[in-house]
Amino acid sequence: MALRSQPTALQARLGSELRKMREAAGMTAREAAERVGTTSAQMSHVESGRAGISAERVRQMATQYACLDEELIAELVAMATDRSKGWWEEFRGVLAHRALDLAELEYRAASLHTFEGAYIPGLLQIEDYTRDLMSYGIPQPSPQLLETLVTFRLRRRAALTRDSPPAYHVVIHEAALRTRVSTRQTARKQLDFLLEQSERLNNTIRVIPFDTDRFGGAGNPLLYASGPVPKLDTVYIDAPHGPGLLDAESQLVRYRALLDKAATFALSSEKSRDFIHSIAQEL
Predict the structure, then answer these.
(1) Which of 144, 243, 259, 269 has the most C-beta neighbours closer than 10 Å?
(2) Largest CA distance in the chain
(3) Which of 182, 178, 252, 240 is nearest to 210 (CA)?
(4) Using an 8 Å Cβ cutoff, are 58 and 77 in contact?
(5) pLDDT at 243 over 90
């Protein structure tokens, strides 16, 4: 079977978890390959997500690695046998792989926690806000690419409207509410949309006001996506050098703590709605 040139987020994560399991067992790739009857090269391809793996082989590896976490094993088996195609696959070869990885991450998440200090979170942006924000890039995207980018971002909302949507917990700094990336009219519509979305049962939107003392975390936007089991949680960060997915336990602990800390500075959901409404009334 041909190797994948660019594994999906799901495929790469499966390989990563199998590698972590092997390393926890104290085995080299060569030792593990001998135990499960494959080659070191094939083991490397599986762990990088470039090669597929059967459910039977996943269970065999778990046995050889003495993994006793039945819930994790069951989820890895499900990942190995998943042949579904998400809507984001329509954009493969058109948009960056990391953009598709983000859409897949959001759609498959059991819950989503995000903090934004400068902009409205992507899943909550209206079309005109997104278009003007995307237009600000250097170099400016072509008209065709811009429309593709806007369409893609709007379709990401499917994560919040699918059957059994994830709980979506949002903390936004007041700066994100007041930064006018578009016109005054669009800013008002954007805030109205936020208020509308805050009424959805699966959404919790909270605000950190400017006059909050001792808050120094406005420069740390991030998304924390909970997996079906805690070991499959993922952090998405949009850094200056490019976006990235993080899943090491030490990283998950750090970013959970950052989100928890930001949340302690935020107003309650009810007070946040009143706060957003008051800003909208000023426009």
Answers:
(1) 259
(2) 68
(3) 178
(4) yes
(5) no
- pLDDT band of residue 1 (cuts 50, 70, 90) is low
Q: Which tokens belong to 250?
A: 């030490």
Assign 113 to helix, strand or coil: strand
3-state secondary structure (DSSP) of residue 212 = coil
Omega before 141 cis (within 30°)? no
Distance CA 241, CA 43 (A): 30
Vertex 200, ends 109 and 168: CA angle to 5°?
25
Please tell me the predicted confidence (pLDDT) of residue 241: 67
Task: Find the Cα–Cα–Cα–Cα dihedral 59, 61, 66, 70, rounded to 10°.
Answer: -30
For residue 279, give every residue at least 6 positions away whose Cβ sits within 8 Å of its Cβ, in sequence order, or none.
174, 177, 178, 191
- pLDDT tens-digit series, residues 89-148: 999 999 999 999 999 999 999 999 999 999 999 999 999 999 999 999 888 899 999 999
Residues 96-110 as b or e (16 or more Cβ within 10 Å = b): eeebbbbbbbbbbbe
pLDDT digits (tens, 9 = 90+) for 201-232: 999 999 999 999 999 988 888 999 999 999 99
